[in-house]
Amino acid sequence: MCGIWALFGSDECLSVQCTSAMKIAHRGPDAFRFENVNGFTNCCFGFHRLAIVDQLYGMQPLRIKKFPFLWLCYNGEIYNHHTLKKQFEFDYQTKVDGEILLHLYDRFGIYKMASLLDGVFAFILLDTANRKVFLGRDTYGIRPLFKLLTDDGFLAVCSEAKGLTDITHAMAIPAKIAPFLPGHIEAFDLKQNGKVQSIQIQQFHCCTQEPAHAIYDTVERLPSSIKLFIETVKSNIRALFENAVRKRLMAHRRIGCLLSGGLDSSVVAATLVKLAKEEKMPYPIQTFSIGSEDSPDILAARKVAAHIGSEHHEVNFTVEEGIQAVEEVIFHLETYDITTIRASVGMYLVSKYIREKTDSVVIFSGEGSDELTQGYIYFHKAPTPKAAAEESVQLMKELYLFDVLRADRTTAAHGLELRVPFLDHRFTAYYLSLPEEMRVPKHGVEKHLLRESFKGLNLIPEEILWRRKEAFSDGMMSVKKSWYTCLQEHLESVVNDDQMEKAHKTFPHNPPHTKEAYYFRQVFEKHYPGRAEWLSHYWMPRWINATDPSARTLSIYEPDKDQ
């Protein structure tokens, strides 16, 4: 986890512009650097470092003697860098995983370079010899990247949009800031005056394709015929998932895990503890849960932690603390999406605890499973398996606007690095290649195939394996009263009816329909005025005319179903 920032062709004084880069200092609390580009006085890089791999040579922009014309600023982890180094017999200068990008680019060009990376990344690569600038972002946008490009060719890039909002440039209308599309690369020509011209935007990977790097992976190619035996499928799911967790153990800092007590985080935590023992890690894995004392999540997480033998931490928080945190959460998130904000409060507070009270820095989490394995309760109402499969892929493509955005910003706000094994390229591609009928909810239980795959192994307690879906923002408080209900009650008096009547005029793009949504939008506009287009639409369940994203508001929600 780091913060990257770069300018190409700035008309303003760089020392003034550089203050914008300090807005993402939380992403890299260990060190920072600004560096001008030789021969291009109006181009520069800014980098905030969180040191996870290679403490000595990890500062960026990364440059090596073999390629003095290449400058790399990247945020991410490349899990297969050792494999690729060996495969292509590259001669390394550092122990930095990102060095592989320089060698791959030099040998194969930008498209194949991006395709061969197994990991999470956002990068800015400058080639001064060929006068090119390249941007790229991983398949699911797990690492964030925003760009600002003016009509006259001034380019500014940053891990978070807040690092671009105060960038000044001689132009009449403020330039549009937009998230860089996941799974894509963009190439620019770099002119002599430091300005750029976009020449190509290309998708290098989509979630339904097996990734190009699979042929070099430690888990061999798997059969994907329709006539698969269910036992083979379940065995493949387990093998690929375990492989996804194992490759993410790459770190020189302590590893921990978020544990809500739901299926996804429990399977991640249990697999992590198991592999940590196999790898003989010198410390016990710490797990972290958050909620009020009687919340379903706290109780379930306690049960899982005892079962897997983790060093468990419980973070209790009150409604008042949650409400108090909302504004800073919205500032970090850069969104006004309702469910994203609700779920982010708990994650932000637990990340704050981890940073202040422990030495865990690399944090595993269960994001991506609901989208991949059709875990949301509304999937029970999908009209056909085909519709469910299409919705699943659409959710995967939009993760960077919702759950992945939440997971990155709430942890990065406190200088932590998040790892999400459910969004492993090979695991997701395999799961999405399975027959549509196999992936739908069965016998009234969502994520049935995933649960079946881990059944009877004693990996996690059976009642947790079959525990029903509980939204993170719901399960943190008691069954009697959800966190979102408490929030809505508080905001009832903060926003008046008159404001609600005029909401569609005040906020024509994505107008808020509730006082809670109105308040979130107000806070967002205070920090990011006129940037409402960063969110294309609110996250909302399909097929059931939902007016609220919470699972507990749906008629199909059954809190006390006998498990």
TrEMBL record:
L-glutamine binds at residue 97. CDD domains: Asn_synthase_B_C (cd01991), AsnB (cd00712). The active site is at 2 (for gatase activity). Keywords: Amino-acid biosynthesis, Asparagine biosynthesis, ATP-binding, Glutamine amidotransferase, Ligase, Nucleotide-binding. Transmembrane segments: none annotated. Pathway: Amino-acid biosynthesis; L-asparagine biosynthesis; L-asparagine from L-aspartate (L-Gln route): step 1/1. One of its GO terms (biological process) is L-asparagine biosynthetic process. InterPro entries: Asn_synth_AEB (IPR006426), Asn_synthase (IPR001962), Asn_Synthetase (IPR050795), AsnB_N (IPR033738), GATase_2_dom (IPR017932), Ntn_hydrolases_N (IPR029055), Rossmann-like_a/b/a_fold (IPR014729). GO terms for molecular function: asparagine synthase (glutamine-hydrolyzing) activity; ATP binding. One of its GO terms (cellular component) is cytosol. Residues 2-191 form the Glutamine amidotransferase type-2 domain. Its EC number is 6.3.5.4. The keyword Metal-binding does not apply. It catalyses: L-aspartate + L-glutamine + ATP + H2O = L-asparagine + L-glutamate + AMP + diphosphate + H(+). ATP binds at residues 258, 290, 365-366. The record marks 367 as: Important for beta-aspartyl-AMP intermediate formation. This is Asparagine synthetase [glutamine-hydrolyzing]. It comes from Mastacembelus armatus (zig-zag eel).
